Amino acid sequence: MISVEGLRKVYRQGGGRTAREVVALDDVTLTVPKGEIFGILGRSGAGKSTLIRCLNLLERPTAGRVVVGGQDLTALDATALRQQRRRIGMVFQHFHLLQSRTVADNVAVPLEILGQDRAQRRRRVAELLDLVGLADRADAYPGQLSGGQKQRVGIARALAAEPDVLLSDEATSALDGETTAAILDLLRDVNARLGVTILMITHEMPVVKAICGSAALLEGGRLVEHGRLADLAADPASALGRALLPARAPMPQGAGAGVLAELTFVDPLAATPLLGLLARELSVAVTLLGGGVELIGGRRVGRFQVGLKGGGSATDPAPILSFLNTHGVRAVLL
Ligand SMILES: Nc1ncnc2c1ncn2[C@@H]1O[C@H](COP(=O)(O)OP(=O)(O)OP(=O)(O)O)[C@@H](O)[C@H]1O
């Protein structure tokens, strides 16, 4: 649904002699499949907002292509671009609602731009407010709403023109924990019911963990990693994976437990018999020292710290690690 190829954005900051160039995006290449909820993580200044503004061409990239639904946005003239932008809805951190308009009239803005008549607009607005759970607040003004309700209006407005893609720029960053969870539930529901592809920009890992199937990490304008959440979490070398499944409390010293290792696997139920196999085939005793199982990207991912003893492990753990790795368990020595 979204394909970004070699995206580069260079800003000029300052003027005259002190002018300097800032590379906000550097050769970013990314594909987001239809129906996916995709998270873009990164610290402040990593280039997240620039990426989202380049995705709908609010900002023109210095180089590279942005293809949405098969249409190369970077190749379009202004009129064609306005048409295509309707396929992309935007949700903002600070909502950007018109304070002098009611909830219903805020949601109707994109429909007015589309030229729909009053009856069509009224029908569609009622549908949208129902979808976001605000049917009873149609005549309220934004100033009379809570933050979570304002964001529901923002989401209804973003969906009004039936977009294929929703771009969410820190949509929950101004909300408390409970409200964040409710808004994420709503976005998940919108994704499941309408099939809208959602790209979420956030600096909060819990947001990604709660809702995304895949994610990417931006650092200094470069995309340093991306993939499916469960695969990232199962990869001990992945920075995103480490953040998804951080180390637990300090591990107790496994006195007499043998060589210490960390085992990571997707779907622990399928992997568990392997520990029995280790005992039978390599005569290795496995002592469980720590770890746990979490639901990440809709899949169960386990990470356990273990002691491995016997089977020659005291001197050479390589055969055990290689046995585990060939059976789909990522095993590293601690
Ligand atoms: N309009 C602009 N003019 C000049 N430089 C800019 C402009 N917009 C962004 N930048 C610079 O580009 C870099 C990336 O900024 P961007 O706002 O995309 O980061 P971000 O990851 O969204 O950060 P935050 O989470 O703080 O919003 C920063 O160094 C920033 O100073």
Tell me what you see in this structure.
The protein is an alpha/beta fold and 334 residues long. It has 2 domains: 2-242, Rossmann fold, CATH 3.40.50.300; 259-333, ACT domain (Alpha-Beta Plaits). Helix content is 34%, strand content 31%. It is built from 12 helices and 14 strands. The chain has helices spanning 48-55, 78-85, 103-107, 109-114, 118-131, 147-159, 177-194, 205-211, 229-233, 239-244, 268-282, 318-326; strands at residues 2-13, 20-32, 37-42, 63-68, 71-72, 88-92, 165-169, 197-202, 214-219, 222-228, 259-266, 284-296, 299-310, 330-333. A 6-stranded mixed β-sheet has the order 6-7-8-3-9-10, with helices on both faces. A 4-stranded antiparallel β-sheet has the order 2-1-4-5, covered by helices on one side. Strands 12-13-11-14 form a 4-stranded antiparallel β-sheet. Helix 5 (118-131) crosses helix 6 and helix 6 runs parallel beside helix 7 (177-194). The chain is elongated. The model has no long low-confidence stretch (mean pLDDT 90). Adenosine-5'-triphosphate binds next to strand 1, strand 2 and helix 1. Adenosine-5'-triphosphate is lined by residues 11, 13, 22, 24, 42, 44-50, 203.
